[in-house]
């Protein structure tokens, strides 16, 4: 299952897509790419300046005016997510996709140095929030003729290793979440759920996980855009309940 070699991406015109972690790294690049293909993008992250930078880039490239949602996912509860979904519905009228790119990370350390508070943050932001935010948006997604929900996995969630601790464990839950959402909803709705594992990418997060690495020795976020555009757009309509590792690719 690879994106086409010479992708002819279908337009995302008219679609509304929510991107978490839209102020930096993969979320920023994907949000700009979705908007460049015509989507109206809801930009979510904590840091307003970074969201504004993404907003400005989209407008400068002639994309539809995005909406900004400065929001701390860690602080939210069910009612907060319901209000957020209500605000998106009120201002943007519809929702055709979510890219869950936001992630919490502290450092690579042995388990004996990790704290309960760190694990609570990791499990909430990286696993419980993708569930809860998606659930709060289901009424809008169910109204879409072709909705795509993308969770962002991490290879150590599939192949855990020493020192990746709570971060790896939190990411390991996304594959079952993908399967369960898919099995429960694929027959009754047009929503598809998949997890995309980017593989190593030069981003602010990568510089935290691999601080000694030479910058630019890894792929850039823009290199992965074919995957994000393909999985968000109608060309991947048949792809449901999959965990897709961009660094490996999968045969159909
Ligand atoms: N880079 C890699 O090599 C790599 C490899 C495998 C998987 N991934 C995954 O790819 C995704 C994107 O990561 P990235 O590499 O692009 O790193 P990044 O630039 O650090 O992106 C993480 C984003 O999460 C947002 N965020 C963190 N906590 C938040 C909170 N409580 N509320 C709202 N937003 C929050 C941050 O924005 P604010 O600080 O503004 O809130 C930031 O924009 C992540 O899910 C990561 O696990 C990355």
The helix count comes to 9
What is the averaged pLDDT score?
Answer: 94
Tally of distinct domains: 1
Percent strand equals 5-15%
The name of the CATH architecture is 3-Layer(aba) Sandwich
User: N- to C-terminal separation?
Assistant: 4 Å
Walk me through the structure.
42% of the residues lie in helices and 14% in strands. It has helices spanning 25-36, 48-60, 78-92, 116-142, 155-158, 165-172, 174-185, 204-209, 225-232; strands spanning 16-20, 40-45, 67-70, 97-100, 147-152, 191-197, 243-245. Helix 3 (78-92) packs parallel to helix 4. With 252 residues, the protein is an alpha/beta fold. The protein has one domain: Rossmann fold (3-Layer(aba) Sandwich). Residues 20-21, 23-27, 45-47, 50, 71-74, 101-104, 125, 152, 154, 198, 200-201, 203-206 line the site of NADP nicotinamide-adenine-dinucleotide phosphate.
Notable features of this structure?
252 residues; alpha/beta; Rossmann fold; 9 helices; 42% helix; globular; binds NADP nicotinamide-adenine-dinucleotide phosphate
Short account of what is shown:
The chain has 252 residues and is α/β, with parallel strands linked by helices.
């Amino acid at each position: 299952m690879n994106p086409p070699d010479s992708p002819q991406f279908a337009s995302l015109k008219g679609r509304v897509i929510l991107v978490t972690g839209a102020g930096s790294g993969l979320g920023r690049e994907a949000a700009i790419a979705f908007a460049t293909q015509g989507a109206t993008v809801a930009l979510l992250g904590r840091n307003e300046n970074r969201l504004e930078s993404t907003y400005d880039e989209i407008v400068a490239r002639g994309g539809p005016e995005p909406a900004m949602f400065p929001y701390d996912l860690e602080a939210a509860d069910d009612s907060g997510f319901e209000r957020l979904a209500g605000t998106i519905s009120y201002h943007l009228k519809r929702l055709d996709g979510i890219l869950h790119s936001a992630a919490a990370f502290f450092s690579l350390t042995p388990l004996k140095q990790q704290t309960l508070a760190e694990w609570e943050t990791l499990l909430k932001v990286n696993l419980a929030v993708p569930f809860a935010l998606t659930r709060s948006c289901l009424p809008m997604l169910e109204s879409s003729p072709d909705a795509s929900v993308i969770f962002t996995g991490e290879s150590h969630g599939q192949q855990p290793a020493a020192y990746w601790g709570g971060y790896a464990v939190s990411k390991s839950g996304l594959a079952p979440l993908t399967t369960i959402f898919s099995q429960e909803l694929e027959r009754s709705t047009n929503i598809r759920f998949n997890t995309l594992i980017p593989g190593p990418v030069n981003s602010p997060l990568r510089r935290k996980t691999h601080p000694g690495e030479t910058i630019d020795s890894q792929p850039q976020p823009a290199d992965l855009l074919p995957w994000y555009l393909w999985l968000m757009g109608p060309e991947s309509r048949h792809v449901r309940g999959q965990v897709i590792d961009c660094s490996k690719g999968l045969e159909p």
